[in-house]
Amino acid sequence: MAYINLLPWRDAARKERQKQYLTILTATAICSFLLVFLINVVYDTRIEGQLQRNQYLINEIAVLDQRIKDIDTLKETKKNLQQRMSLITQLQGSRNLGTQIMDEIASSVPAGVYLTELEKKGTSLLLVGKSESNNRLSNLLREAEESELLSEPYLEFIEAGKDSVSLLSNFKMHLTVKGYEAIQGADTPTTPAKPASGGAR
């Protein structure tokens, strides 16, 4: 009976399996490397894109901040212009204020009341004069309350004349000019007025 030696065949099969195993192992390593490399490239690309978007947002925010500063500057300029326009309007409205006040006082002072002094400080008026009776002063207060230009009449005092022969009483009255703001430099110094009765209508 013939004997067949199978050892060389088994060695060859074993070597072939080892070779296949090494080939598969090498292929697996190469595939794993390529996969990691591709993942790294993808994430690097995404990170780079995100960094570019972040830089774009930073640049746009800087532009918006500059625009906000410009808007704030424009608002401040607008506010200054509005204040100047308001001051000009006040100056124009108060240009004839002195004449209007004199006309209003002349029309408000009743007969029997005589003004000797008129003083204006800002929007405050001081009237000093003489009156034939308290009823005359009451009429003056009522006229001032109903006036469109004058308001807040306040009688500081009224006293009988020092001369016993005189029938006139001395008085001092405060008024406020409404509708106008006090303007710097618009104060009028004390001006003595000729004693004269009012009642001019």
UniProtKB/TrEMBL annotation:
Stretches assigned to coiled coil: 64-91
Entry keywords, A to Z: Coiled coil, Membrane, Transmembrane, Transmembrane helix
Q: Which residues cross the membrane?
A: 21-43
Q: Does the UniProt entry include the keyword tRNA-binding? A: no
InterPro entries in the record: Extracell_DNA_Util/SecSys_Comp, PilN
Query: What Pfam families does the entry give?
Result: PilN
- Would you say which domain of life the source belongs to? Bacteria
Protein's UniProt keywords contain Transmembrane helix: yes
Q: What is this protein called?
A: PilN domain-containing protein
Q: What organism is this sequence from?
A: Rheinheimera baltica
